Protein 1
Amino acid sequence: MSTESHIIAERKRKFEEWRKLGFDYASKFERTHTSGEAKAVVEKKEPRDIAVILKKPASGVALCGRIMNLRDMGKLAFLRIRDGEGDFQICLAKDILGEDYKMFLRILDLGDFCGFEGEFFRTKHGEPTLLAVKVIPLAKTLRPLPEKFHGLTDREQCYRQRYLDMIANPETFRRFQVRSNVVREIRKFLEKESFQEIETRTLQPQAGGAMARVFETHHNDFDHKFVLRIALELDLKMAVGGGMERVFEIGKCFRNEGSDPSHLQEFTMLEWYAAYRDMAWNMELTENLMRTVLQNVLGTTEIRILDKNEKPVQVDFGKKFHRERFPDLLKKFAKVDMFLISRGDLEKEALKWDMKKSEVKKASTGTLLDHIYKKSARPNLIEPTFVMDYPSELKPLARPREDGTAEVFQLLVAGWEIVNSYGELVDPQIQRKLFEEQSAARAAGDEETMENDEEFLTAMEHGFPPMTGFGMGIDRFVTLITEQSNLRDTILFPLLKPERSH
């Protein structure tokens, strides 16, 4: 029998002792305080001395949590329990519990959930503690937790068993609290700005709103093939066309492509659209959103993040964001003039910037320019920077300009693309023409193009108001502000290839 199997068998035996004593897996426990509330209470008033409590113990408070540590000192035992707000110390005293004292120490294991009733006091070292007059086992843990001093360090195991990662590594637990708080603050900010939260389709007849490969599924009832959405954009715009002037959605998107530290096939997007507003207003709102979320979640707008080389850098979201034009950055960092360079010379430049020869010939001009920009300029954008005026060929849903650029900005921080925003195209005739050009490029072999979408065009032909839009990857933003380098470290249960069964 393996060591783990032996531990499980022993804990099952202990659970049978629980049952004989009248305990089982509890349905509830009425606690009076969380660990955080209990610490605040102890800090505000002077509790009774332990010697006084031992003579006449009270039972006015109740705490519960997972047992993380246990020290038996003979007539006293100190346990550390953990709940959603942190750890709190529990003291068991033989003089109070009598014969049950040794029994509880015997049947309780690290990892068990347990409730305690009693009275608060401070130890001689000033530690807020609850002296228990009643112990109520709540749930037995059959498998051992990661060892205290070795923790859980294997990265893949952390992803596969995130619950253990959160138990063993408090910084992981805090990271997911930050993520939850970020989403909450985003919602509060947008609702204050008169946005309505709506939900749109996850299954769609065809993909739209971005350039990506899709996941396909068969709908048995309709006997039809559908795709998982790759973006939220088109449905949200149609909702604006229907009269909902400011809308947002926080939802899952799926792209059937390769993964790396900054890209995953399943991810969470925030998108919003506002009627009658332009890109200048959008930029101001974006700056305010970033500052408000960071201030309310982290308590500061000056944060340390990791750049694309995983080196820590300090950035300040409190300052006015920099503004740069895509054509100017290409000139500065790659010596490429996107308005004058020939197709042949552009292909040579793309090869210099490590684009595969097999991809260069079939890539559109916009795709070539974007590749060179991402390799040359983007890694150098450390402070929050709005990059504007991308090639319109790359942005078929944005308002095009006569010089071949589109009314677009992206927010770049430390080489990471955080936000993608448009002055939205609402002219259905131009939109149809751009979709047709995208379809022709796809037929010629460029897979990073959009398909024509008649459903969306029909909606647009019924009339869209002027509008601007915003898209941000929640995973990427949280990864950045928590000083991580891999999106999986901010996704609670990232998708992984199943382990082989033995």
Protein 2
Amino acid sequence: MKSDLFTIIKKEFARFFGDKRMVFTALMPGLLIYALYSFMGDGMSQMYEPDENYVYEINVVNMPQSLAFLEEVEEVNISKIQEADADAVKDAIREDEADILVVFPENFDAEMLAYDVMTATTPAPNVEIYYNSANTESSGAYSIMREVLNSFEQSIANKFDICQGEKEYDLATEEDISAMVISMMMPMLILMMLFSGCLSVSAESIAGEKERGTIATLLVTPMKRRDLALGKMISLSTFGLLSGLSSFIGIMLSLPNLMGGSGLENVKFGYSVADYAVLLLVIITTTLLIVGMISIISAYAKSVKEASTMASPLMIIVSLVGVTNMMSSGMPEELYWYLIPIYNSVQCISGVFSMDYQMLPVIITCVANTLYSGIFVVVLTKMFGSERIMYT
């Protein structure tokens, strides 16, 4: 009995380690999961941090002499403005066109030195800092200025206050905050929905027919391999898109409940018909791309189970790319980034939901995804013409 037991174990070990594809698909998910969570950790830590070379624009009204040293700090640029221009700067902060506004009392240094915590009958001089919490650069500038003022305040025995009173210092609207939150969540969710929908139909359509032997009947007909590959891609893309759109509609309908936990359940999202049209266009071309990748994997696999297993590393890679928008405060300005498959779709989807996108990057993304899908059709056609691949 012992010899039979070891014989079975030895046989299974030989089967596993003798198949490079099986070893690869077994070990790769663990490595990719490690990379995914490490990357997500870095992304979350950098989510609210601007580029390390960014210079913060600090607009100051009544700049006091006691804080003149700020003008020597490399990472900030002090712009002295008149009090009459303060409202215009606040509007620019709301529109993400300015970082922060700091308003000092007119005679700040004199009032600060004259103030005595123990005997004062009037409030301490108040420094007002206006910022936009939905903007990464504005939040960073606010944090720096707040830290500098707190340190200065402690060094002089708390002779002034910061952002006291009933004024609204955070100029971000609820719509801005909700758009920021949604733009960080949605790309990865949409990609996962599309990938799951495409995998469920693509693996069965190609690897399933290969496993059952019905693909051989199709291959011996006079049908062109190109027509077979293209027909598979179009039909599978339609099924995958329907699945993805169903999940997408479910998410959009549940957004009010999703945002309710943050106190934003009454926010009306300002997305236009054009925004949804752009989003749909990106989703369609992304679906074509994902179907193409999964179809090639399915054509190479021997069965539906093997196709699903081999697609697992690809799913983790897609998830990894899906969180890259957390590491940037906006869509990349360089157009070559939009030639990178999946990454380009993530950035466009994030841009649409954050209501901050341009049409040229979207057009480049859709054209690139369509081109890559065409290449996948050519590769799939070649695979259908290979007896070694299709009849193994």
